[in-house]
């Protein structure tokens, strides 16, 4: 179990309070699909993912990006037991979808970049450290089924 300080909890809650889920989620997933094109293989039903413009304009990418961000919101609301919160998702991604667990880290990195761009100077080194700690716990929880 991860120990969270009151300041870390407040920082994570503050970040989520500032997020526009319908912008950040789609931009994060699109960035991941563009920068790491091998991740596209997990989305065979999304249609045209042949170039950056197609990915950025794909409504299925946008919708799933928003779903991912809302799923991450669950971790923020359950910071004391993120592993249990994501137990079912870990099983789904491991046993049914067969997602390479390293892709969770790649998506987390893309999310950090998008949020840093949105927050600008408010994304201080301390805020970034707290955010990356939070994402590391989420990624670990999603990878739990793989261990």
From TrEMBL:
The record places domain Globin at: 3-147
Q: Which CDD domains does the record cross-reference, listed alphabetically?
A: Hb-beta-like
Task: Tell me one GO biological process term.
Answer: hydrogen peroxide catabolic process
Task: Give the InterPro entries listed for this entry.
Answer: Globin, Globin-like_sf, Globin/Proto, Hemoglobin_b, Hemoglobin_oxygen_transport
Q: Does the keyword Glycoprotein apply?
A: no
Q: Which domain of life is it from?
A: Eukaryota
Question: Which Gene3D superfamilies does its entry note?
Answer: Globins
Record bears the keyword Iron = yes
Q: Which residues form the signal peptide?
A: none
A GO cellular component term found in this entry reads:
haptoglobin-hemoglobin complex
Alphabetically sorted, this entry's keywords are: Heme, Iron, Metal-binding, Oxygen transport, Transport
Q: Name one GO molecular function term.
A: heme binding
- Family, as annotated: Belongs to the globin family.
This one is known as Globin domain-containing protein
């Amino acid at each position: 179990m991860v120990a969270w300080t009151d300041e870390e909890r407040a920082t994570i809650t503050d970040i989520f309070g500032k997020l526009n889920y319908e912008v950040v989620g789609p931009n994060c997933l699109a960035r991941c699909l563009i920068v790491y094109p091998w991740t596209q293989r997990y989305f065979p039903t999304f249609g045209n993912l042949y170039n950056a413009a197609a990915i950025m304009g794909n409504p299925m990418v946008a919708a799933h990006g928003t779903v991912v961000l809302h799923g991450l919101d669950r971790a923020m609301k359950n910071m004391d037991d993120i592993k249990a919160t994501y137990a079912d998702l870990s099983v789904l991604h491991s046993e049914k979808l067969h997602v390479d667990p390293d892709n969770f880290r790649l998506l987390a990195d893309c999310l950090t970049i998008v949020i840093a761009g949105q927050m600008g100077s408010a994304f201080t080194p301390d805020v970034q450290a707290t955010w990356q700690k939070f994402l590391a716990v989420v990624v670990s929880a999603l990878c739990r089924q793989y261990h």
